[in-house]
Amino acid sequence: MEDNMMIDSTTPAQSSLTQNFQAIVNNNQVVLDWKYEMRRQMQEILPGLFLGPYSCSKEFDLLKQNNITHIVSIRDASEKRILRPRFLDDFRYFEIEVSDSPNERLIPHFPQAKAFIDDALLNNGKVFVHCNGGISRSPAFVVAYVMETTKMDYQHAYSFVQNRRFCMNPNEGFKVQLKEYEPIYSARDTINCHPYTQGELERQALRRSAPDDDDPNEFELARRAPSFHEEPQVQR
């Protein structure tokens, strides 16, 4: 008899978190009367998940008042000396280096950002996600998180986040990538939840190595694909 191998890292706590968030996003309502000056503030998108500009990450008292424990800092190389972690002894940081360019690839960073956020929330932490202005890059990451966690499609997830931070406006390249990300994480979830026998895994490996099945494009995509099981690189 062949042993079944289930590749599924979902825990009861993660399932509960997903269900709670799904209930919230399914009741998508505008939750605030937006004013221009609110773009300089951070907003709570989901319980424990905040989004805003870099300036908020410099306000120690504000972070503590909102019980922030983890910070996702998104910046490019030119911003590194300015948009830097300031309270390494008090918060856990996850730094992502991407520019606000339509050609910048965000998708490879989404899984690790989600893992960092999930780890914080599942351990009763709270996360603040920021870029420079909280307009383009960080909202894109939060939309991706809402999509993957709640299984909500791009349009509804985008609307949900925007109803809480109205000034958000990811560049067009980021919007395209968010639409592309939906089938990617859906396919990954399907694979993770499919029980493979040892024999099936071996047969798939043999088919992959057969000369007739060699597809240069396929192997190039596989080589370039990000690892979805890497641990986030964090600073303490």
Automatic annotation (TrEMBL):
Domain Tyrosine-protein phosphatase: 41-187
Annotated keywords: Hydrolase, Protein phosphatase
PROSITE patterns attached to this UniProt entry: TYR_PHOSPHATASE_1, TYR_PHOSPHATASE_2, TYR_PHOSPHATASE_DUAL
InterPro entries: Dual-sp_phosphatase_cat-dom (IPR000340), Prot-tyrosine_phosphatase-like (IPR029021), STYX-Interacting_Phosphatase (IPR052449), Tyr_Pase_AS (IPR016130), Tyr_Pase_dom (IPR000387), TYR_PHOSPHATASE_DUAL_dom (IPR020422)
Domain Tyrosine specific protein phosphatases intervals: 114-165
Swiss-Prot/TrEMBL GO biological process terms: negative regulation of SCF-dependent proteasomal ubiquitin-dependent catabolic process; regulation of ERK1 and ERK2 cascade
Region: Disordered, residue numbers: 207-236
Cellular-component GO terms for this entry: cytoplasm; nucleoplasm
Hydrolase as UniProt keyword: yes
Biased composition (Basic and acidic residues): 220-236
GO molecular function: F-box domain binding; phosphoprotein phosphatase activity
Domain of life assignment: Eukaryota
Pfam families (alphabetical): DSPc
UniProt record similarity statement: Belongs to the protein-tyrosine phosphatase family. Non-receptor class subfamily.
Protein name: Phosphatases II
Organism of origin: Gigaspora margarita
